UniProtKB/TrEMBL annotation:
Homology family: Belongs to the glycosyltransferase 37 family.
Statement: the UniProt record of this protein carries the keyword Transit peptide: no
InterPro entries the record matches: XG_FTase
Topology within the bilayer: Single-pass type II membrane protein
Annotated localization: Golgi apparatus, Golgi stack membrane
Keyword Glycoprotein listed: yes
Residue stretches spanning the membrane: 6-29
GO process terms (BP): cell wall biogenesis; cell wall organization; xyloglucan biosynthetic process
Protein name: Fucosyltransferase
Domain of life (superkingdom): Eukaryota
Biased composition range(s): Polar residues: 88-97
Function: May be involved in cell wall biosynthesis.
Gene3D superfamilies with a match to the protein in the record: 3.40.50.11340, 3.40.50.11350
Length: 612
């Protein structure tokens, strides 16, 4: 069966959406949407395979000064006729060399126009980047010197995929700066090994049917099966789900289990299949889809404490690792627990936490993960880029948006503004916070209030604002439209528009959220709101150390507006509180020197480099 990205009807939305993200005891909503922006449509080198160089203004529908639904329609227009994937690869949707250009330009300001000669675009070193006269049936980006090593992210990804079924997999490296972090040879070998197990034991294989049948018939008594499984079930918003899914995947690798995901309709069409020639979706007809009547990990622990007998282990176990402040310790990080779990062929895990640090804390796994990730602060960076590839539908929206608005800029700033308590926090206080952070750290320039003439405008910074409230973006736009900047930089602000009178189902919410997170991850600099798992996904994919905005909950002013994070790893908000012997965990850093309290949540922990 050829794995394929799921199809998604292209009635794309750009209105108000709410993504609940539980972090402590409160629900916080981040709400953002996508849509019409002030476009500016100077010439932009278009997609590499077009016969002639066209400008953005020619290719894109007029997005300037439009409001409402037009972008939505434009997206529909360009997606419907290329939904087959084939045309997409062959024709208009081939990657824009302008995108690659931006990355190069940011280091070296030679203009792209200066490098087009005889329809060949050259890099600064004179090497050919792309030919503008490629044959029409060329399904890879037009003669772009695609180093396979770049394309496969230094060996992180495996070759052999049907490229057209997941265009983002081969194109993402053109949009993102090359990562300075190479996956270790050991990580690569573990991934290839995992893929082999998944191919052998995944859905629709004989081994799968045999193992699952055996498990089903021996629910309450142990069974030795050919293959072992780990079923991921969703909890909380998409950001939480993605960081948790990456952690769950790592746990699957460490325990030689096949990862299967319970993706409901809400995640339809978001991601490509990550594993070659197989699927990671738990089949709908599986008896373990939403299985409620199985033994729980908590009960297993109690039984284990009462007697030492592990003879009556079940074949299926539900592990709830969702945080609550008052929960008894779960001892999931402990060797003894893992010893028990190892014998159970099917585990169903539910959590909204990035529990990777607890795997490092576990003596069972510590050696393995340390070998896989010599740079401990890159776990999500690697696993996230391995697992999460936007589907063709999502990728079209991401890449089109990127090229229309962001690719032209010399620098991109991602600005995620979440308001935790809209009622008690005046908008002005949030705006002041954002400005005070971005101006102080020179992420954005000061405006020149004395003159409106302006200096020579040299560089363009694009600011992508993700927020429920369009006022923040509007304020920024107004500020930079009225006055030139002291630095001479031109600031272009793009903020999603937002429709209050429409209702959308979760799938659209999630699609929107995913596109938002991905675009934020392409930033050169990122400013996020503390505790935001959306921010974590973006920073991890993009290898960015974000500036964390202070979590405002009322009209306060006396605090640093933001702090720079020390790694791009997500924060594990609710880590274990006890050693395995039951003693309270006191000095975490001396016990686990590679862990630090998170900057945005002191109770939480995250990975750091050994050397820090
Ligand atoms: C490019 O455009 C010019 C003018 O529009 C046209 O004369 C020329 O044939 C085009 N070249 C190709 C390769 O299509
Ligand atoms: C887009 O706008 C420009 C200038 O406003 C105009 O010249 C052009 O004809 C428009 N294109 C379309 C397709 O409407
Ligand atoms: C989309 O296509 C329809 C019909 O093909 C056309 O009327 C409409 O103008 C197009 N919209 C845009 C924004 O290009
Ligand atoms: C795609 O390219 C073809 C010619 O190769 C052109 O006729 C068509 O308008 C383009 N479609 C879009 C959506 O740009
Ligand atoms: C290019 O796209 C056009 C319309 O979008 C389609 O008719 C044509 O078959 C495509 N060409 C190739 C070579 O796929
Ligand atoms: C761009 O880089 C090339 C070589 O890497 C160098 O010769 C050239 O001077 C650079 N141009 C600018 C404007 O920095
Ligand atoms: C692709 O183009 C080459 C020549 O440019 C031709 O020989 C080949 O048959 C074409 N393949 C397809 C699938 O059209
Ligand atoms: C994946 O499937 C394709 C087509 O079915 C096949 O050619 C290829 O050999 C398979 N790859 C692996 C690793 O099984
Ligand atoms: C459980 O095992 C430990 C040592 O492995 C032993 O000290 C303890 O007495 C046993 N408890 C029971 C209830 O069997
Ligand atoms: C601004 O640009 C003009 C010509 O483009 C040049 O003459 C002038 O010296 C520049 N001014 C500054 C301050 O760079
Ligand atoms: C918030 O605080 C500032 C200064 O501390 C004050 O000027 C402003 O009026 C306050 N706003 C509200 C809504 O309380």
């Amino acid at each position: 069966m050829a794995p394929n990205s799921m199809s998604f009807p292209m009635f794309f939305v750009m209105f108000s959406i709410a993504f609940p993200v539980v972090v402590t005891v409160t629900f916080m909503y981040r709400n953002s949407s996508f849509g019409l922006f002030e476009g500016y449509s100077e010439g932009n080198l278009q997609r590499g395979t077009s016969q002639n160089v066209t400008t953005a203004a020619e290719r894109l529908p007029n997005v300037t000064e439009t409001h409402g639904f037009q972008l939505g329609r434009a997206i529909q227009n360009t997606t419907h006729d290329s939904s087959g994937g084939k045309d997409q690869g062959n024709n208009n949707s081939t990657v824009s060399s302008g995108v690659k250009e931006r990355q190069r330009r940011s280091q070296n300001h030679t203009s792209i126009e200066g490098r087009i000669k005889n329809n060949i675009i050259t890099a600064d070193d004179g090497s050919k980047i792309a030919s503008l006269t490629s044959s029409k049936n060329d399904s890879t980006p037009a003669h772009v010197n695609l180093d396979d090593n770049d394309k496969l992210l230094g060996g992180l990804l495996t070759s052999g995929f049907d490229e057209e079924s997941c265009i983002s997999r081969i194109q993402s490296h053109l949009y993102r700066k090359a990562s300075p972090h190479k996956p270790s040879p050991y990580l690569i070998s573990k991934l290839r090994n995992y893929e082999e197990i998944h191919t052998r034991c995944g859905p629709n294989t004989r081994a799968y049917h045999r193992s699952m049948t055996m498990i089903e018939h021996s629910k309450n008594k142990g069974a030795a099966t050919l293959c072992k499984y780990l079923i991921w079930t969703p909890a909380n918003g998409l950001g939480n789900q993605m960081i948790n899914l990456a952690a769950t995947f790592l746990y699957a690798i460490l325990t030689d289990r096949v990862l299967l995901v319970e993706f409901g309709k809400d995640k339809h069409g978001l991601f490509c299949e990550p594993f070659l020639n197989s699927t990671w979706i738990l089949p709908r007809k599986s008896p373990f889809w939403n299985e409620k009547h199985i033994e729980t990990y908590q009960i297993l622990l109690e039984k284990d404490r009462a007697s030492n007998s592990t003879e009556d282990l079940p074949s299926v176990l539900f592990i709830n690792l969702q945080h609550t402040r008052s929960d008894p310790e779960k001892y999931f990080h402990c060797g003894h627990s893992q010893d028990l779990l190892q014998k159970i062929p099917l585990l169903t895990l539910q959590s909204d936490q990035y529990f990777v640090p607890s795997l490092f804390m576990n003596p069972f796994f510590n050696q393995e993960v340390t070998k896989m990730f010599p740079e401990k602060e890159t776990v999500f960076h690697h696993l996230g880029r391995y697992l999460f590839h936007p589907s063709n539908e999502a990728w079209k929206l991401i890449s089109d948006y990127y090229e229309a608005h962001l690719a032209k800029a010399d620098k991109q700033i991602g600005l995620q503004i979440r308001v935790f308590s809209p009622v008690s926090t005046p908008q002005q206080a949030v705006m002041d916070l954002v400005l005070s952070c971005t101006l102080k750290h020179k992420i954005l320039p000061q405006v020149d209030l004395q003159t409106s003439a302006g200096k020579n405008q040299t560089t363009v910074k694009a600011v992508l604002v993700a927020s429920l409230y369009r006022e923040y973006g509007d304020n920024l736009k107004r500020m930079y439209r009225k006055n030139p900047t002291l630095s001479g930089e031109v600031i272009k602000v793009y903020q999603p528009s937002h429709e209050e009178h429409q209702k959308y189902n979760d799938n659209k919410h999630n699609m929107k959220a995913w596109i938002d997170m991905y675009l934020l991850s392409l930033s050169d600099e990122l400013v996020t709101t503390s505790l935001s798992t959306f921010g974590y996904v973006a920073q991890g994919l993009g290898n960015l150390k974000p500036w964390l905005l202070y979590k405002l909950v009322n009209n306060e002013t006396h605090f640093p507006p933001c702090e720079r994070d020390f790694s791009s790893e997500p924060c594990y908000h609710f880590p274990p509180k006890h050693y395995c012997n039951g003693e309270p965990l006191k000095d975490i850093v001396s016990s686990f020197p590679y862990l630090r309290p998170c900057k945005d949540f002191r109770v939480g922990l995250k990975m750091v480099k050994d050397s820090i």
